[in-house]
Amino acid sequence: MVVSDMLAGGGDDGTLGNLTRPSVNPNTLDSHIAAVLLYGDPRHMPKQTYNVGDVTATGKYPRTAAQLTALSKYANRVHDYCDNKDGVCDAAGTNLSAHIAYVTIWNKTAATGLWTCCSTWA
């Protein structure tokens, strides 16, 4: 959540505090970001090109349209992993064990994706 909020902006309608602008300026730092890996992001949004996993619901704290637009600038480098029933990135989920299983389930796949991003970025 921290990394994605830096890229897209944070906050919402009050639950997470006031809306904030992205703290990373894509005009100055964009060329220094090779890849972004998110496991169980509570800001998860369905139907994004960078999603990995089987969740079709929003996270507990879904992004605003403006935040999605900001994050889309990094779409070719973001890998947002969210599994069904994860009690954090799936608002309908209740299984916190799913939330802590990403390292075991996805690390090899994530490493391959990050390697691809980094090798094409350089």
Structure characteristics:
122 residues, mainly alpha, Rossmann fold, three-stranded parallel beta sheet, 5 helices, 35% helix, disulfide bond, carboxylic ester hydrolase activity, AB_hydrolase_fold, hydrolase
| Whole-angstrom Rg | 14 Å
Instruction: Give start-end ranges of low-pLDDT stretches.
Output: none
* Count of the separate structural domains: 1
What is the CATH first-level class name?
A: Alpha Beta
Shape: flat
The number of helices is 5
| Helix proportion | 25-40%
CATH 4th-level superfamily: Alpha/Beta hydrolase fold, catalytic domain
The average pLDDT is 86
- Measured between the Cα atoms of the first and last residue, the distance is 26 Å
Biggest beta-sheet profile: 3 strands, parallel
State the total count of DSSP E strands: 3
Strand content: 5-15%
The helix/strand series, from N terminus to C terminus, equals HHEEHEHH
Name given to the CATH architecture:
3-Layer(aba) Sandwich
- The neighbouring-strand order within the major sheet is 1-3-2
CATH topology: Rossmann fold
Structural class based on helices, strands and sheet pairing: mainly alpha
